[in-house]
Amino acid sequence: MTLSFGVFLLISSVFCCCAHAGCGVVTRQQWDGLDPTQVEYLPRPLGLVVVQHTATPACDTDAACVELVQNIQTNHMDVLKFWDIGPNFLIGGNGKVYEGPGWLHVGAHTYGYNRKSIGISFIGNFNAKTPTKAALDAAEALLKCGVREGHLSRSYAVVGHRQLIATESPGRKLYQIIRRWPNYLEDIDKIKNNK
C-alpha cells in the first residue's frame, strides 16, 4: 500500500511538473530557479510572442546555460526588482528551453506588453552572430507546442522586441531570421500600444 501511494505521488509530481511547464521545457526546479515574489496570471490563449535576446554571453552546454539563467534571474530580481526572471522562456545555444514565468504567468520582458504576450529570449547577443540551429529548432518546437497545448492562439503573431520598444533586441541577425517565420508580423499598428 505504501508503494502504491509512493508511485501515485511520483506520477502526480511528474504530471504537475509537465502541466505547468510542458513542451520539453527545463523547469525552474531543474535549473534551481528562485520562487517568484509575486504571481499574476496571463489570459489564454495569447496571440502575441515577443522574441528578444539577453545581450549576455551565449551558452552551448547545459551547465553554462543554467549558470547564465540563474545569473539573469538574480539580476532581474535583486537589481531590477522584478517579481521573477523577465522572459517567459529562455533558449540556450544547447537547444534547451528554460522556464521563466512560463505559459501561465505574466513576465517582465517588454514594457506595456507583458500582460498580453509571451516573451522568448535567446541567450546571447545576436547582433553579429546567429543563434545555433539547435536554439532555433527549440523555439519552433516551443511555439508549436504552445498552440497544441492551448497557450497560444493558432493565429498568434511573432514580433521582434525592437518593433515594440527602443532596443537592439533581438539583435540584427536574429531579427533577420524571425522576419522569415510564418507567423511574423511586419505591420504592428494594430497591436502597438498608443501612449
Describe the protein.
It is a single chain. The protein is an alpha/beta fold. The protein has one domain: Lysozyme-like (3-Layer(aba) Sandwich). It is built from four helices and five strands, in the order αβαβββαβα. The chain is globular and about 40 Å long. It starts with a helix and ends in a 17-residue tail after the last helix. Residues 1-20 have low confidence and may be disordered. Residues 34-171 form the N-acetylmuramoyl-L-alanine amidase domain. Pfam families: Amidase_2. Disulfide bonds join 23-145, 59-65.
What's this entry about, in short?
By secondary structure, the chain is α/β, with parallel strands linked by helices. Helix content is 31%, strand content 14%.
List the main descriptive attributes of the protein structure presented here:
single chain, 195 residues, alpha/beta, Lysozyme-like, globular, disordered N terminus
* Beta-strand segment tally: 5
Integer average pLDDT: 90
CATH architecture label name = 3-Layer(aba) Sandwich
Q: Return Rg in Å.
A: 17 Å
The poorly predicted ranges are: 1-20
Biggest beta-sheet profile: 5 strands, mixed
Task: Fill in the CATH topology.
Answer: Lysozyme-like
Helix content: 25-40%
Instruction: Give the overall shape.
Output: globular
Query: In CATH, what is the homologous superfamily?
Result: Peptidoglycan recognition protein-like
**Number of H- or I-type helical stretches:** 4
Within the largest sheet, what's the order of strands?
3-2-4-1-5
Relative strand content = 5-15%
Distance between the terminal alpha carbons, to the nearest Å? 62 Å
The computed structural class is alpha/beta
What's the CATH C level?
Answer: Alpha Beta
- Please trace the helix and strand order, writing H or E for each element: HEHEEEHEH
